[in-house]
Inverse folding.
């Protein structure tokens, strides 16, 4: 990113370069991104509402969030890059 | 008989499972406010019905040999893992490894199931109304899977004798998995499975049968002369 790539491009490079199992949550001052390796062995759950995006390794950790019952809760797919900006 | 009410807000997982195990055959229980709690209704051998009313965590209904467990929400990893008999029905989506290693009984996912659904299935029945993620049926040894939607990549990788039926599209097959011709017997099996799951969107004569090509059954020491 120091060389001008945006967060999504940078994470695409990570997918190409990194070996092994990983689930990454990367934040910048204004962005929030999640990416998993091609096997997606490490757990990850995302909850998305109009007010916030939250990520945890399991739903139990998100269960107490306000508005969670109306949230879109999903698991990111392997090698899928999710980026949110504010 | 009035259902027994057990609240996760008040009781530990151990207390809930002990209370469920103490119920007589034919009893019903409602488990309230699960809030993603793991290990609910595991290791039960009585013929009871358990309604988990909300989203639940890992291993729901695992190791069961008798009860019928219904979850009105989604579940985490390994729902119904090592199920021996009875059933687990999930009205929402299931996370990874649904029905892992189950030996018997029926696991029904009314929504989608994530990756590795039916991994190492050993005789159980796994029915998914929606889609499954990658590596469905990985190393499944016996039993049957019906996928009412689409299957992700590497379906049936390293399959043994389990059979997978897919009503939708298959992103790709795993090593040693192959599509096989659908016989009349298969159509009857799929009809029975669809009825069991309550899947009226599955047309039994239009599913794809995936089974092992059995080319990995014997280790070939001279293969490609690389060893």
């Amino acid at each position: 990113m120091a060389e001008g790539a945006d967060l999504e491009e940078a994470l695409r490079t990570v997918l190409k370069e990194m070996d092994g199992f990983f689930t990454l949550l990367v934040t910048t001052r204004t962005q929030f991104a999640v990416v998993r390796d091609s096997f997606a062995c490490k757990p990850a759950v995302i909850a998305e509402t109009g007010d916030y995006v939250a990520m945890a390794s399991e739903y139990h950790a998100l269960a107490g969030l306000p508005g969670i019952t109306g949230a879109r809760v999903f698991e990111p797919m392997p090698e899928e890059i999710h980026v949110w900006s504010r | 008989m009035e259902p027994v009410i057990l609240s996760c807000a008040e009781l530990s997982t151990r207390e809930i499972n002990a209370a469920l195990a103490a119920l007589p055959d034919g009893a019903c229980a409602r488990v309230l406010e699960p809030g993603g709690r793991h290990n609910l209704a595991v290791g039960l051998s009585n013929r009871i019905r358990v309604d988990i009313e909300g989203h639940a965590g890992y291993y729901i209904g695992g190791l069961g040999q008798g009860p019928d467990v219904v979850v009105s929400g989604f579940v985490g990893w390994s729902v119904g893992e090592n199920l021996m008999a009875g059933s687990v029905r999930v009205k929402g989506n299931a996370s990874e490894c649904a029905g892992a290693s189950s030996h018997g009984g029926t696991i029904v996912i009314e929504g989608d199931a994530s990756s590795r659904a039916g991994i190492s299935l050993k005789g159980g029945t796994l029915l998914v109304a929606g889609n499954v993620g990658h590596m469905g049926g990985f190393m499944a040894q016996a039993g049957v899977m019906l996928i009412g939607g689409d299957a992700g990549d590497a379906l049936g990788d390293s399959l043994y004798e389990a059979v997978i039926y897919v009503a939708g599209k298959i992103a790709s097959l795993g090593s040693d998995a192959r599509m096989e011709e659908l016989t009349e017997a298969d159509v009857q099996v799929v009809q029975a499975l669809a009825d069991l799951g309550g899947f009226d969107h599955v047309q039994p004569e239009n599913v794809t049968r995936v089974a092992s090509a059995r080319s990995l059954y014997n280790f070939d020491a001279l293969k490609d002369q690389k060893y």
User: Anything to note?
Assistant: The domain at 4-214 of chain B is CATH 2.160.20.60 (Pectate Lyase C-like). The first helix of chain B runs from residue 13 to 21.
